[in-house]
Batch of 3 targets.
Target 1
Amino acid sequence: MTQPAFHRIDGVLHVENVSAVDLATQFGTPLYVYSRAALTAAWRAYAGACAGRRASVHVAVKANSNLAVLNLFARLGAGFDIVSGGELARVLAAGGKAENVVFSGVGKSAEEMRVALEAGVKCFNVESIPELDRLNAVAGEVGRKAPVSLRVNPDVDPKTHPYISTGLKANKFGVAFDDARAAYRAAAAMPNLAVVGIDCHIGSQITDIAPYLDAIDKLLELVVQIEADGTQIHHIDVGGGLGISYHDETPPDIGDFVRTVLDRIAERGHGQREVFFEPGRSLVGNAGVLLTRVEFLKPGAEKNFAIVDAAMNDLARPAMYNAYHAIEPVVERTDAPQVYDVVGPVCESGDWLGRARSLAIEPGDLLAIRSAGAYSFAMSSNYNTRPRAAEVMVDGARVHVARERETVAQLFAGERLLPD
Ligand code: LLP
């Protein structure tokens, strides 16, 4: 049996064959650590379920855009889902190919469109009529036809956190279901666009397949109407959004999810179309941890605080979404645990990483914040002039520095004092 990517040897957390204590000692804290084996296994779960089917996987770059992570996926044969010109540049720098890139996002600039057209991306996932107009104009200037898909808002409730639910009528995303047929007619009439597909993305951290199937059924209904109007739909992009287990969630297994989606599309008579998946979190989320060191313990009348050296600037998800990340001591102690709020040094009451956690810890101890591979480093900031953490990728017994720790000098290198 191969070891799980994160496991304990004599009570000490290891990432593959490397002790987390050694990682923290060598690279300092806060430190993001990714397991190459865990990333690869998640990719293979998607790719394996797609094998032999007309289906492909586009990694949502926003979840973790580190070049080493993208490079690993590119080597494994991944396509990519991007939302900015910056993400396109990262994909190309990481060895990805533009022809395997879908460009999502609700507010693409003309410049981003131009660069993506010239690079030759596979598809623009367009979200409004004004965006169609802009893309048509830019494509005319560049002298290329832009391949487009319209992101349709199927108005289904993915039953996830309101900030990460995107397929409801009340969300800013996509073309309203009732307007989609007309929007496709408009797109088909634009001389510099080539309609190639249809897409949706109903939310993130979804732990139930039912809303996907509802969204797919609605999309397929539309596909029939669009084709009746004379426009061919080659691919159906079902977006990303599959959840992971942070705490006690029980999301569907990746392979089951992919097969259920593909089977549904085939059963409805659309098996000849290519299907795209755009997963982010389910590929990278549980392949990373954030290591942090306890600076002080601060017992209080109402609460005990464990003040650690990672903060909301390193991991924003608890502050932003009230998100739960498991927190474990790197080295287990046998003392009786106490209940702590685990908080960072940033000057905000919202700077917390975990609340009411039962931990046996002392100052100087290391903690591992689990499930920190997705939307963690990628959402980090320099608030409080805190340099962003280093990122390393463990591969068996080897450790690759995927991103050096920032220095304070880098943080204000682009700033200027006033002139005399
Ligand atoms: N495709 C599109 C068009 C998206 O907007 C997203 C994520 C994905 C794919 C990937 O979704 P995933 O498989 O990762 O759920 N920062 C939030 C999550 C925001 C997700 C935004 N869109 C969080 O930390 O929970």
Target 2
Amino acid sequence: MSDKKAILHLEGKQAEFPILEGSVGPSVIDIRSLYAQTGMFTYDPGFTSTGSCESAITYIDGDKGELLYRGYPIDQLAEKSSFMEVCYLLLYGNLPNKQEMDEFNHGVTYHTMVHEQLTNFYKGFRRDAHPMAILVGVAGALSAFYHDSLDINDPEQRRIAGFRMIAKMPTIAAYAYKYSIGQPFIYPRNDLGYVENFLRMCFAVPCEDYKVDPVVVRAMDRIMTLHADHEQNASTSTVRLASSSGANPFAAIATGIACLWGPAHGGANEAALNMLMEIGDVSRIPEYIARAKDKNDPFRLMGFGHRVYKNYDPRAKVMQQTCHEVLDALNLRNDPLLQVAMELEKIALNDEYFVEKKLYPNVDFYSGIILKALGFPTSMFTVLFALSRTVGWISQWSEMIEDPSQRIGRPRQLYTGSLHRDYVPINQR
Ligand code: SDX
């Protein structure tokens, strides 16, 4: 805690606010007493300059294009770690030793099955339901089945709820995919790792054995690591706000899934691939760049721009490298979408509009091409993002619940509506 203060001079009065310093990054002005001292609120729609909490999980330096999970750079984790090890790191704050890793893997593995009755929910959806619609519904429905892990004030119930959420999301997601293609659900297997299990549940059929391709596993594992957490983004903030009322963890995670679905957020990977397919050929890129710059055209280049990164998203760099590795390994090097993506990136990064507004490719720009090459339909892309981000949501949720200063989130407003007026009966209007 520093002894620095921010002083606000207002209508002849003076208000003082403590300045709090973190381990790195911008300090914050603690304005919790602002209304009491001044009778005024701050105003920050979109929270561009607002810190909603204290956190020790993920740090982003948007100017440098740096992303740290518990202090470890994302590119090192993507190259040297694994998604399960990153889950442990995000949840508990340090890299596990062998015994801790084995125990964690066992704990997750033995929670991957879902209650058999949960599968009845799928039959209520149309076959062409978007898998995200199914994921929102079924994830929220978990709270109807796991009554022994709903009490957020009980650390043991929170621990089990976290394991259940991280372990069951791949099963729920894979079932959503199987349902959409009319194939039978494939049960998880305890002799497979997290990513292998998920790929097998998605792509195996009962009629023959499924051989998991190690290239696909490595790429999927890396993609999940890149998407695991990202500070106080929209869906994580949604989970925190929903949980601040004491809502159970399954319901809170369902709110995060719903928020992530939006094309400005996690839905951008699906939207980015659809955009590349719509552009179709490098010759049409200038037309779309022009549309993205046209204020009267709502079109935006999906996969570009970020609220925090005003430099290259470090995840996009790893994604781009993974994209080339996967397409080479699967002999898809001449994928026309990759050609369009690379040319679009080159043109956009040299276009004055994008340079001036610091619009760089983000994590969603290349992910769609990789996921399509790995065999997933576009409609599953955001599901995969949600599957990866679940550990981030659970880590941030746990941190918030354990924070003694946390209270129910309840923002205020600038009211610009009607002043007091009395009711007028309809026959006098
Ligand atoms: C994710 O927050 C996170 O951490 C999110 C995420 C995570 O891991 O959780 O990183 C995941 O959501 C990545 C972002 C994925 N979304 C997209 O790729 C969709 C396209 N991007 C834009 O919608 C936009 O860039 C946002 C939503 C990502 C950021 O929006 P901001 O910060 O509110 O910025 P803005 O909309 O105010 O844009 C600033 C300017 C505007 O022009 P002006 O009004 O200043 O003239 O840049 C323009 C925008 O019109 N702009 C774009 C653009 N993005 C911003 N113009 C064209 N194409 C774009 N993609």
Target 3
Amino acid sequence: MQDCIFCKIIKGEIPSTCIYEDEDVFAFRDINPAAPTHVLLVPKRHIDGADTLSDDDPEHAALIVKLIFTAGKLARELGLQDGWRLVTNVGEHGGQTVRHLHIHLLGGAALGDFGAKLEFRK
Ligand code: AMP
């Protein structure tokens, strides 16, 4: 998608610290880390968010499985043997600031509520 910052990162038009790439998935360091290790995993194909996943698209389910499997592989490679967290924010109330589906991989410390965006506005 033309104006999507993550599509530009995937195409190399905006620099990023890429740590993994295959034909479907791109993973890079979050520019504003919320934990000692903070990686974003994104599908190369633009999908707005988890709210636009659909049974009608046969590729969607396979992509989600691949993103989560890849997160597990990267967590092992990054030495997160004591545990880690996956988060995906959806829409305005979910705190999604970039409208390209992404999964946050957080670890490297006991997280508690750290990085979970559990707070809410009254
Ligand atoms: P969310 O708030 O869940 O939509 O997450 C978007 C994430 O993208 C935030 O954690 C940002 O720090 C991160 N982010 C935004 N721009 C960049 C960038 N150019 N490179 C790396 N991470 C970014």
